[in-house]
Specification:
With about 425 residues, this protein is α/β, with parallel strands linked by helices. The protein folds into 2 domains: about 130 residues, Alpha-Beta Complex (Aspartate Aminotransferase, domain 1), CATH 3.90.1150; about 260 residues, Aspartate Aminotransferase, domain 2 (3-Layer(aba) Sandwich). It is about 40% helix and about 15% strand. It contains 14 helices and 17 strands. Strands 4-10-9-8-7-5-6 form a 7-stranded mixed beta sheet, sandwiched between helices. Helix 3 crosses helix 10.
Amino acid sequence: MTEVKTIQKANIDIQKIRTDFPILSRKVNGKPLVYFDNGATAQKPQQVIDAIDNYYKDKNANIHRGVHTLSQEITVCYENARSTIQKHLNAKHSHEIIFTSGTTASINLVASSFGKKFISKGDEIIISAMEHHSNILPWQVLCEEKGALLKVIPINDSGELLMDEYKKLLSDKTKIVAITHISNTLGTINPIKEIIELAHAKNIPVMIDGAQAVPHTSVDVQALDCDFYVFSGHKLFGPTGVGILYGKEKWLNEIPPYQVGGGTIKTVTFEKTEYADLPLKFEAGTPHIEGGVGLAVAIDYVNEIGLSKIAAYEHELLIHATDALQKIEGVKIIGTAKNKASVISFVVDGLHPFDIGTILDQLGIAVRTGHHCTQPLMKRFGIQGTIRASFAFYNTIEEIEEFIIGLNRAIKMLK
């Protein structure tokens, strides 16, 4: 049985919050939308939508290089957004915040740039068995190019890292550890602080995939002492197509640019190019300007509610859904870690996740089905895929009850 810690009831005005998200008022297949696919992407509050709309209506121009008023105004907005993200992560410097197109791009940047300078034949890179494909493939490619070895931290049947095995993997050959903060499939919250401390004891840098963490919990990169931290805007109630790479100034200065072109240079001649200082060194071309501005607005929005309140409320949702699912015959939850975020993956004996997801959709209930870009993890549990319900702070207990009714109906129809 899943053990879930109890938390004092959160004090948030859920009905007021729901009015901020226009899409939550629509119907799907004639039914009120129940959106439980927040692990894939979160919905956007009106404040974020308005910020994007205002950019195109009032401030549309390119940044950094223009002397005219519009360019100057949007440059200030964009750099203020960078400062907002810096403060949100408690980074030491705003130039440690690099805008990218998302978590995947951020990981590829680190793997490519760090790997180009610091990875050689016979070196080792450590990831875990619960990683998203985006935190597997870039390191696999790097290992193939360099002749390095990819090492994997195993997990137990509850979906928790085997920390003793992790300690054994760390060696003088280890050049970087890249690991998820929260599993997108299992909901497991990994002991990131301990993982970093153990690696740093051997002078090994650590990159954290925070894509699933930033919507649910506060992240202090200085307190964690991570070397790199990455996440996407769209899972944090911001726009798609924008993400963040936090990197310690030391590392960002040492590694080469990932992409080059306009905006990344100080001087260019046909003989030699001198690259710009941070953060522009890593921001080639015209960025997703409205995405950066919208992400800052999304961060302001969640901070106004309070991430501690959000975490407590989402935990209530997790408890309620877990208890209800465990009462349904044939349902097995995949990922029963003691420390979990508001994500539940499960299978139903004899039934395909896709069939259940399709019936739930006809009832207006959006869940994710499949392998969730974690095929090695599916193999670890001996399954092809799961049904995943992932909750956000605008979801309700009543929606969970509708989901349980719908799930029972689907099972009855398919048996």
